[in-house]
Design brief:
Blueprint (H helix, E strand, L loop, with lengths): L1 H14 L3 H8 L15 H8 L1 H24 L4 H16 L12 H11 L1 H18 L2 H19 L3 H17 L1 H9 L14
Helix pairs in contact: 1-4, 1-5, 2-4, 3-4, 4-5, 4-6, 5-6, 5-9, 6-7, 7-8, 8-9
Length: 201
Amino acid sequence: MMLSILLILAAYLIGSVSTAILTCRLLGLPDPRTQGSGNPGATNVLRSGGKKAAIITLAGDLLKGWLPVLLARLLGLDGPALALVALAAFLGHLFPAYHGFKGGKGVATGLGVLLGLHWGVGLASLLTWLAAAGISRMSSVGALTASLLAPLWIALILGDIWVTLAACVMLVLLYWRHWGNIRRILDGSEPRIGQKANPRR
């Protein structure tokens, strides 16, 4: 029980580390929260800081989702405990303790969580993102489609109801954080991949 609590807490604190903010500070770039969409994530960093900063941000966000979940699995956690570790890492990115509980949208960290749960789940979700983003030329469409199907991949590959439920909670939160993107997709103003984002709307 104590191990589970410690791992859940550690997952949240690791998830709270903002790779985007740290990367931009180290590279002498503007704070991503003041640029473009204002989101501290890889897509906004790509638009405002370039490919190098975006790749570092993406890798860091993936890692902080993957590492706590993988560690929990290696230590024998499953069921509700593993589901809570996964959810805690994701919530850390959305509501970071170190940045006034104002974080990113959770796409890369969510993918890291899925990879930590099972490589097959992560791969299926990544391929879903690539297909949807490639067809639409919109990163947000890829994220929304991949997150929508993630619970299905977990149910089929892992068959764990608790982890599937955690993925459903992540899905709801991710859609909530993408509400502005959803509105722009519907009205045709969502930026395409490689296009500069409009100032916050």
